[in-house]
Specification:
- With about 525 residues, the chain is of the alpha/beta class.
- The protein is built from 14 helices and 21 strands.
- The strands form 5 sheets. The chain has a 7-stranded mixed sheet with strand order 14-15-16-13-12-17-18, sandwiched between helices. Strands 9-8-7-10-11 form a 5-stranded parallel sheet, sandwiched between helices. A 4-stranded mixed sheet has the order 2-1-4-3.
- Helix 2 runs antiparallel to helix 4, helix 2 runs antiparallel to helix 5 and helix 12 packs parallel to helix 13.
- The model has no long low-confidence stretch (mean pLDDT about 95).
């Protein structure tokens, strides 16, 4: 049986805790985490040494390290896909989405490093004259923090979560301590082994924790960064760690998100934007079995198109084949864990208080290729609010599975925006319309509540990757309920790992130092 190990100070050792990993389609135990203990002092000393080595390198040199890591993942693509199917319940398509997202993000940040050139710091803005004197000037620079980056990742994207956080930190010059969610950690563990084989990565610049982080967070200080992806409840626990508060440790949290899709009243059933909406909604509901932080949970539809949407989305969902993802015919696998299944079932039951079922009942399903009574399977479930204006639970509870709720509305942009904003902050929402005035009203009403907005129109057609794909060039994160964090966004993704410092003095000296 596979034993998941931690990677610290250039060697693999027993992980912490005593946990088992299973195949969510069969419930068979396929790996375990060893029962070792975490030597925090050794871990941090190794990481600090790796950070010192990274800081001597230029952005371009760090970018080449990321390129090498991207190639390592790509070369092992088929193996990693197999692990994602076995441990994550992913179909082959869902597994590719995660693995290719990881290698692609590393490659994108490799290119960014190349464009940043031979510097080891960033000049932020132009010089500014501070007094009447033409000599006294000021400017800002961004330099790497001299601490460590602790990355605590979610279960749903073990490859992509690891890579997107690591890409930003390593390019900034900060060493990474990566801790995946244990339940689906086989993919992340194999990636750690691949990274360990990369000679260009300084020893200590990347560490991997299998199992618990123990009391690691209590040993962090003001130069360190914590980036967390997961539930709002766990994110709150992380934030409240005494040492993080005492030392003002930078904490970035990506948490719950009740993402919405809004269909504009100007469309009809034959318009390209309407067809794009239907295709995107069905995919966002079922890709990764709905276990995406960017999945669509709330669907606002004009009263005039309500019946058409019910029929067309139900037709798409009826074509989904739920079962063991190892089978080629299956298009949606199980949820990742027993706890996830229990939570989704409980969530559907709560939503039933103010909705009626349009498709999928309460999630009952007979999965293909699965032993009766085994596996964490659920059907796609489409619900509809019985009274959109009075609905409450749908704006408060994220059901982390293939579940979405239709919210019919009058077609008025203000009414739609008010409903979406009840979610109190989201990672991404989408608006489908060819009416530019409607789009304008929605954008400026929703922007304060979102990290990203996707605008679907007839001309866009097949040119987009849809609202649910996290792109390295654009910010990923959101305000309020979504955690208040921000990752990626090209060069912006480096900022949590860099210190902005104002420098004032004689202009010729500043020019000589920074130009």
């Amino acid at each position: 049986m596979k034993k998941l190990k931690s990677y610290i100070k250039g060697r693999f050792i027993d992980g912490t805790g005593k946990d088992s990993l299973c195949n969510p389609a069969t419930e068979e135990t396929i790996a375990e985490v060893g029962g070792g203990s975490l030597d925090v002092s050794s871990l941090l000393s190794a990481a600090h040494a790796g950070g010192a080595a990274l800081r001597t390198l230029s952005f371009a040199a760090r970018g080449e390290i990321l390129r090498a890591l991207s190639k390592r993942i790509f070369a092992a693509r088929d193996e990693l896909i197999g692990l994602a199917i076995a441990n994550g319940g992913n179909t082959r398509g869902d597994a590719k989405f995660d693995i290719d997202g990881a290698s692609g993000t590393l490659a994108a940040y490799a290119e960014l490093g190349k464009s940043m050139g031979d510097r080891t710091f960033v000049v932020d803005g132009d010089s500014v004259q501070l007094t009447r004197s033409v000599r006294f000037f000021g400017r800002h620079i961004l330099v790497p923090r001299e601490g460590v980056a602790v990355h605590i990742n979610a279960f749903n994207f073990p490859a992509w979560n690891l890579a997107e956080k690591a890409a930003c930190a390593l390019l900034a010059g900060v060493p990474v301590i990566s801790k995946p969610a244990t339940a689906t950690a086989l993919v992340a563990g194999r990636i750690a082994e691949l990274f360990a084989e990369e000679s260009s990565l300084p020893q200590g610049a990347f560490s991997f924790l299998a199992g618990s982080v123990a009391d690691l967070l209590s040993h962090l200080g003001g130069q360190d960064v914590v980036a967390f992806t997961g539930s709002a409840a766990t994110g709150e626990t992380v934030r409240k760690t005494a040492a993080l508060l005492t030392h003002s440790v930078h904490v970035n949290v990506e948490a719950d998100s009740l993402n919405a899709a809004v269909l504009g009243p100007d469309l009809d059933r034959s318009s390209e934007a309407y067809l794009l909406f239907i295709a995107d909604l069905a995919r966002e509901m079922t890709q990764k079995t709905g276990q995406k932080c960017t999945a669509t949970r709330r669907v606002l539809i004009p009263d005039s198109l309500a019946e058409a949407v019910r029929e067309d989305v139900s037709e798409k969902l009826a074509a989904i084949k739920v079962g063991n993802p190892a089978l080629e015919e299956v298009t949606m696998g199980p949820l990742a864990t027993r706890q996830q299944l229990d939570d989704v079932r409980a969530g559907i039951q709560r939503l039933a208080e103010e909705t009626r079922s349009i498709f999928g009942g309460r999630g009952e399903v007979t999965p293909i290729g699965a032993e009766k009574g085994r596996g964490f399977f659920v059907s796609p479930v489409l619900l509809e609010a019985t009274d959109s204006a009075r609905a409450r639970v749908v704006h408060e509870l994220e059901v982390f599975g293939p579940v979405a709720t239709l919210l019919p509305y009058s077609g008025d942009a203000k009414v739609a925006a008010d409903l979406v904003r009840r979610g109190q902050g989201s990672l991404v929402s989408s608006v489908y319309s060819d009416d530019r005035e409607f789009l304008k009203q929605m954008v400026f009403a929703l922007a304060p509540y979102h990290g990203r907005l996707f605008l679907g129109s007839s001309k866009l057609g097949g040119h987009s990757v849809g609202p649910g794909t996290v792109l390295p060039q654009l910010v990923h994160g959101g305000p309020g309920r979504a955690g208040g964090g921000e990752e990626l966004g090209g060069a912006r993704g480096l900022h949590p790992y860099l210190q902005r410092t104002a420098i004032s003095g004689d202009r010729p000296i500043l020019d000589a130092l920074f130009d």
